[in-house]
């Protein structure tokens, strides 16, 4: 990487944000100005290993050459048509993405929250048109501690008061049950149920992995009771856990898959609802849409992302390096780590609260050149780009070990 081009200091830029940016985030005090692979560089030229990877939007690292090349090539030809017209990139993107996950059809959107909103609309429409639920009576069962995004409908069925409080009134039609509890799910499902909407692994909640058999149980229950299984794989999907999808660990195929984040290769927001024709086919012209959804730039980058995933290399790396991550974290248990959960290159690490909050530990790691993000309380989340090398990962684990040791 060459010298930074900016002249304002990190401190100055952070101060300049305060009066002009909404305060809906509390970022660590690092101002990134360039990045490559797993490394980011701040305006003073300090380098950091990025162990957050844009909440899994950067599964392939920063500026992966194949993705950047696809974006450049498309930028030089066509960027946006809206869906008022066809574009010459969309058919291939939909074909390839549907093929990757073994379903028929794609509804392209942009952000994760839009994919979730779209999935909710599709499920409700399916409930009225196909299942025969009386008008406006459809319900959707969701899990406590969920994180599906920030729209008013979505935060309305969140159990996180910070996300919810002050934003009502909320849309009705959602039932909340404990995660990882099939009996509670069974009790909540009835003839009005359009869908069960869950994360196969709850990322924002702290990388909560359900018991083996839970996803199979959700699949069996939804099939038996005649409602849809909608899996939000926006954070868990596309290689992160060592398989293309987190549901692949139980060989489960949901009715509706919600994808986002890494689908845009860290370049543009690209999300999608993917489902079979008997479900996604319920939408007709004018019933749903998005000006930017399915734009040719997004389709080109998304297709290049599918190319990468089809090699299987990233899933393999996540699985192999996931074992290294697990071993490293196991070695830290009792040395500042009180517990952790991991699958592939994704971990929620509970730090001994006596050593500080997750935020404080994240700040100390930043001081040592490693970027992570806390979730709740004393939990930090690790989600490095899947391109990280074993040495880089071992170094990051050693840094975590040192930071925790020094905190004692
Ligand atoms: C599981 C899950 N669903 C949905 C979203 C929302 O995605 P976006 O921030 O792109 O709207 C997130 C974001 O963290 C997520 O983790």
UniProtKB/TrEMBL annotation:
<dbReference type="InterPro" id="IPR015421">
    <property type="entry name" value="PyrdxlP-dep_Trfase_major"/>
</dbReference>
<dbReference type="InterPro" id="IPR049704">
    <property type="entry name" value="Aminotrans_3_PPA_site"/>
</dbReference>
<keyword id="KW-0663">Pyridoxal phosphate</keyword>
<dbReference type="InterPro" id="IPR015424">
    <property type="entry name" value="PyrdxlP-dep_Trfase"/>
</dbReference>
<keyword id="KW-0028">Amino-acid biosynthesis</keyword>
<dbReference type="InterPro" id="IPR050103">
    <property type="entry name" value="Class-III_PLP-dep_AT"/>
</dbReference>
<dbReference type="GO" id="GO:0042802">
    <property type="term" value="F:identical protein binding"/>
</dbReference>
<keyword id="KW-0641">Proline biosynthesis</keyword>
<comment type="pathway">
    <text>Amino-acid biosynthesis; L-proline biosynthesis; L-glutamate 5-semialdehyde from L-ornithine: step 1/1.</text>
</comment>
<protein>
    <recommendedName>
        <fullName>ornithine aminotransferase</fullName>
        <ecNumber>2.6.1.13</ecNumber>
    </recommendedName>
</protein>
<dbReference type="GO" id="GO:0030170">
    <property type="term" value="F:pyridoxal phosphate binding"/>
</dbReference>
<keyword id="KW-0808">Transferase</keyword>
<comment type="similarity">
    <text>Belongs to the class-III pyridoxal-phosphate-dependent aminotransferase family.</text>
</comment>
<dbReference type="InterPro" id="IPR005814">
    <property type="entry name" value="Aminotrans_3"/>
</dbReference>
<dbReference type="GO" id="GO:0055129">
    <property type="term" value="P:L-proline biosynthetic process"/>
</dbReference>
<keyword id="KW-0032">Aminotransferase</keyword>
<dbReference type="InterPro" id="IPR015422">
    <property type="entry name" value="PyrdxlP-dep_Trfase_small"/>
</dbReference>
<dbReference type="Pfam" id="PF00202">
    <property type="entry name" value="Aminotran_3"/>
</dbReference>
<dbReference type="GO" id="GO:0004587">
    <property type="term" value="F:ornithine aminotransferase activity"/>
</dbReference>
<dbReference type="InterPro" id="IPR010164">
    <property type="entry name" value="Orn_aminotrans"/>
</dbReference>
């Amino acid at each position: 990487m060459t010298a930074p081009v900016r002249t304002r200091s990190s401190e100055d830029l952070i101060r300049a944000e305060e009066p002009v940016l909404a305060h809906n985030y509390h970022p660590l005090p690092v101002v990134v100005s360039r990045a490559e692979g797993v490394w980011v560089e701040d305006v003073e030229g300090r380098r950091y290993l990025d162990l957050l990877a844009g909440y899994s939007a950067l599964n392939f690292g920063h500026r992966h050459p194949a993705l950047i090349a696809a974006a450049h090539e498309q930028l030089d030809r066509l960027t946006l048509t809206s869906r008022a017209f066809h574009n010459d990139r969309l058919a291939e993107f939909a074909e390839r993405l549907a093929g990757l996950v073994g379903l028929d059809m794609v509804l392209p959107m942009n952000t994760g929250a839009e994919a979730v909103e779209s999935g909710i609309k599709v499920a409700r429409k399916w409930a009225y048109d196909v299942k025969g639920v009386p008008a406006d009576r459809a319900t959707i069962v969701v899990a406590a501690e969920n994180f599906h995004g920030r729209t008013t409908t979505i935060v309305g069925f969140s159990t996180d008061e910070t996300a919810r409080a002050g934003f009502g009134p909320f849309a009705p039609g959602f039932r909340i049950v404990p995660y990882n509890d099939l009996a509670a799910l069974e009790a909540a499902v009835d003839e009005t149920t359009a869908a069960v909407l869950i994360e196969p692994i709850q990322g924002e909640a702290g990388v909560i992995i359900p018991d083996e058999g839970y996803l199979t149980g959700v699949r069996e229950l939804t099939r038996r009771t005649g409602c849809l299984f909608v899996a939000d794989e926006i954070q868990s999907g596309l290689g992160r856990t060592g398989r293309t999808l987190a549901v692949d660990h139980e060989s489960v195929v949901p009715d509706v898959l919600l994808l986002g984040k890494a689908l845009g290769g860290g370049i543009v927001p690209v999300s999608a609802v993917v489902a079979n024709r008997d479900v996604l086919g319920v939408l007709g012209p004018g019933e749903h849409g998005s000006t930017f959804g399915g734009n040719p730039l997004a389709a080109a980058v998304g297709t290049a992302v599918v190319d990468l995933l089809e090699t299987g290399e990233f899933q393999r790396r996540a699985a192999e390096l996931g074992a290294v991550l697990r071993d490293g974290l196991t070695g830290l248990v009792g040395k500042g780590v009180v517990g952790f959960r991991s699958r592939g290159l994704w971990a929620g690490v509970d730090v001994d609260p006596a050593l500080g909050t997750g935020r404080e530990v994240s700040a100390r790691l930043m001081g040592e050149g490693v970027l992570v993000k806390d979730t709740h309380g004393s939990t930090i989340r690790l989600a490095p780009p899947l391109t990280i090398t074993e040495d880089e990962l071992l170094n990051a684990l050693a840094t975590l070990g040192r930071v925790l040791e020094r905190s004692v």
